[in-house]
What does this fold into?
Amino acid sequence: MKTIVIDAGHGGYDYGAVSGGRYEKDDNLRLARLVAENLRAAGERVIMTRNSDTFVPLLERSAISNNAGADLFVSLHRNASENAAASGIETYVYPAAGQTTRMYAEIVNDSMAAVGALPDRGIKEGNFSVLRNTRAPAMLIELGFLTNQHDNAVFDENIEQYAAAISNGILRALNEEPGPGPSPNPAVIKEIQTTLNSRYGAGLAVDGVFGARTKSAVVRGLQTELNRIYGARLVVDGVFGPKTKAAIRPVSRGARGNIVYLLQAALYAAGYHIAVDGIFGAETEAAVRDYQAKHGLVVDGVAGANTFESLLK
It folds into this structure.
């Protein structure tokens, strides 16, 4: 069990951003309560810096986290701009933040971005008090612009999805991720099998079990993609042999597409409970690094021939 501090930004006489009769402090609290509820349901210890419309000084927010020995501090906000068209999500870390903090922030931001309802403005640096004065890894999330009516509508319509994305990202970052977790969720394996059937005609029984036939179907999918993208001229037989290994082109952070999807499917089956979405983000890179470390491979976060071979042979 981890200790997570959820900070609903502003509160009381500190309204935060204002748009008409809408106050940022209220949106922050709505979101914070949902995130906290999700995390508690997952068995985590959650501390909220405020659970009502009260003002809490910035240094006191950090002190709450520091005194609790928190594992993570997450401050939730809505953004504002004089440009009414400004839109999207972004996540801030302190400029001097370490690699762990940045990785956590990227995993949570990637999880929010996967909702797909708002543009992803990425990871940014900010000298905010709650980031500067909190000892635990800390991030500050701006979930859409209060000054953009479209963002407000998206926030209202998708608040539960974004709360789930934030809490799931936190869990993936903190629950000894990206190391191997419990047995794969059969529902996710079924989704993978269904995708393999539709994309590659795998003919798999959609049974939620990642066995030899499903692994072979992943290899056939990989061979198909290597032929299509790189003209590899491989026999599509589902056997990861020397020719398939030689045809592998390394994939790394920022890559997207079916080969990334197949890599993620193999990692998920190996116990890494990452999003299988075809996007090579911070979460996938961390899983690759952990897998490489545990299997005697060069630890560089890049999925090359040796990493694919270890996962699929």
